[in-house]
């Protein structure tokens, strides 16, 4: 889709370095959960804010820079760089580590001329505006030619009546849980500084990487002379990208329906919603009845391991799991039947299953490759992530959005709804033909809710008094 908006202009770029941290190691080895993401583009997530009444853009950026310095002190891997170490013996291999010399992160100051909040918060029935992809630092695919790319780049984009903070974070360093942990901690630091309080994080990160002894000790060797052998670039076909809202009331009815139909009583809201999306998108794709179709989603390892990892474990700690059936079975059976397939996939992800997956990875290391596959959907992110608590001292965000990275036909992203109370927003990326069919699907439309009106969003933002 051609963009109707002017390009975003870069005004300045700042390198933000933390003060020295005596507790930071010189290197951190990547785990079996981190290494598969070496071929995945940076994780791009961002927040839209209205302008506080008593701060200029320059003051906002200065306060973001100051608080980021402190955040990088605590989350020191974010200010490092990836390093490749070539190993000899038993064939040429290499391993990848994070050098923790405090090289720093970057903050980009940009401006979108003539663009306002209303242009970003798309009206009902519209695709997400093309300009959103320009609110994130571009061309930050993993590059091992010298490994000089920052692991974290932040772009602050000026709008007429607000601004957007977009993060691009190397995915081999963090998963969604750690990304939102970092963002909330950064916001907490900013609030402490504004109030003149000593910074004491309520949830400090845990940097001790998880490895299985004997066959999973660091460093983990990759069967490549260089990681570039494992890097595959992906160019998605033309896609439509839309946000759909599901109110807490609508989801409660959906969950009750799924439990009634499967007669099990243990289907969660997420499982019911995943089953609905899987069924409706499969129907929109008009797959042959004998064609296999898959619902795939990441699932946390932190709480499922025995003993459990800290919820503040900083890094990647999840596995993508899936459930598969034929298009005919998925659509001939009811929602409860499909939801039970999702439920079983979740229930089977136990401590022993996690350890088996790590063991399999150690036997045959690999990297994830993005690809188009019209026979599956992939649901990432999570409505459980604490996204709207990222208040840097100027109020609640108006919206959460993602960049262009890692999107393909069938990629879905789940976010908490702005109003809370169990509401959910789902970003859906599909081919234009499939999206048009989904927008007419009766089962889908019966559950989708109207979006939150812009006036309600703006009225719900409470600005705090800030000292200039």
From TrEMBL:
What the entry lists under Pfam families is as follows: Transferase
Molecular-function GO term, any one: acyltransferase activity, transferring groups other than amino-acyl groups
Which Gene3D superfamilies does this entry report, sorted A to Z? Chloramphenicol acetyltransferase-like domain (3.30.559.10)
Q: Which domain of life is it from?
A: Eukaryota
Q: Does the keyword Kinase apply?
A: no
Which keywords does UniProt give here? Acyltransferase, Transferase
Does Acyltransferase appear among the keywords? yes
Please give the PANTHER family that the UniProt record associates with this protein.
FAMILY REGULATORY PROTEIN, PUTATIVE (AFU_ORTHOLOGUE AFUA_3G14730)-RELATED, HXXXD-TYPE ACYL-TRANSFERASE FAMILY PROTEIN
To which protein family does this belong? Belongs to the plant acyltransferase family.
What is the protein name for this chain? HXXXD-type acyl-transferase-like protein
